[in-house]
Request: fold
Amino acid sequence: MYGAQLIAALEHRDESLAFFGVGGDRMRAAGCDTVVDAKDLAVIGITEILSRLPKILGLYRHLIAEADRRKPDLAIVIDSPAFNWRVARQMKQRGIPTVYYVAPQFWAWRQGRVRLLRDYIDKALVIFPFEEQFYRERGVDATFVGHPLAELPHPPIERGDYAAQFHLDRPKHWITLMPGSRVKEVRMNLPTILESAAQLGLAYEFLLPVAPTLDRRFLLSLISREKTGPNKITLVPDALPALWHSRAGIVASGTATVEAAMMNTPFVMVYRVSPLTYLMGKPRIKVPHFAMVNLIAGEEVVPELVQHDFTATKVIARLHEILPDGPNRDRMLEGLARVKARLRAPQDSSGTVQHPADRAAEIILGMLPGFAQK
Reply:
């Protein structure tokens, strides 16, 4: 999604640019020749990566071979540090300027790896306000450009039209379920989320957005195995309209929590990984919160139910605090509004707030060899 936004912003300024690399449907639609499909790299967890390592290494070598053949003028790597710092190192060896857009969250764990950015990256474009200072203090040329989701408009579809489109009961409260965007994390998170939905009962209807990295049939097979009772689970194509029209959400840790905040949807954050991944990862965590919205706010705006705390009983208890009107719901809505304000890009000299992709595009084009002479 971020790559597609960035391509559109770059092409708006120079239609002669061409793009190739790693991406999915949105980047292909934006004009990128995806020589590696992002779905093939969508792996999470230490044990899970080990089982897929031969395939990932093969894709990595294929990408570098394509770079050698096409000889790009500039490289942009987006998130995914385990893969991308290796790509950046290869670009550095070839003398290709490299930009990191959506920089790795090394402030959360393994802070010593900041040296990888210092050694191999020419410019880091960060999307969280506290990251600029963190990276600059450690010798990385970093600029906060704003979060790409901060300027998302509210979906235009009316509630009645949305209900008719997906055969929903309009008077009922809807709850959006977001178990993650990778197969492994969905397998870990969705069963307990569905158990929570079953226990909440028929007073609610449940929306399950299908992430672009997932197959609809995979989700339907998981739902059919779980005891959801008579509850209605409706699969929908896009998360933002579902969140916008929902009373609340059950949302797995990750970008989806920022999406929920941008749609002003109160939610409970949940997450579970394999026991070995949790055992090895937890001691390395350097931050006080798991949920991105809590890190941005500097306090607990939304409840976090992680690993052993992630049970249906606890999910329901926390939802019951925010579903009805009252001080708990109001407090969370106020906190989400503060988070949204902090994620907006800084104003330029004219007082205008640019879209983060536009700000990033300006910086990137200024680095592109020969562009300044056009």
